[in-house]
Amino acid sequence: MESVDESFANTFGNYILHGINEVVLPQSVSWFPQTIGWQIMFFVALLCILVKCASLLIRWYYNRYRSEALKVLDAAAASGDRLELSRKLPEVLKATALQAYSREMVAPLSGDAWVAFLNRTSPTPCFDSETGKLLARLAYERVDNLCLSETQLESLLVAVKHWIESHQTTIPRVRDVLRHTLFGRVDA
Hints:
By secondary structure, the chain is mostly helical. It is built from eight helices and no strands. Helix 3 crosses helix 6. The longest helix is centred in the N-terminal third of the chain and has 44 residues, at about 35-80. The mean pLDDT is about 85.
């Protein structure tokens, strides 16, 4: 026979509940889809997200030279030294073009051909006749001998920054990068 304490413990203090069992809860429902259609759709969506992330990563990787060039120009402009900025403008512009295009295409260009190339590779021409001539002079004359006004230097800086930000290059597609990574150099 049960003692009073055991009987009290089994009924939680209410004798009417004696002999009643607790409710058995069902198993928890899985969050993973049970049908094959939803599983396929989940994996296709996951694949699309991975391809989009890979393309954004590739775009960032192939455009990182732009941000580096802009940082160099911003540092030269922030220093307040006009001579240093005047020296950096053509140097950074040529280095940026060499990163974006082949050496054979960029290296031999100078003067009007260089300015024409810069205007041709940008969606909107960045260099008018005055800034183009000024850029050509900065590249090959001593900066100490040039008398650049503040507005000329500022307009040239704006044009160079605009070209760096907006010039058109071809960024490889995800499948091309994967082919190159997995199988070595593959010409398509």
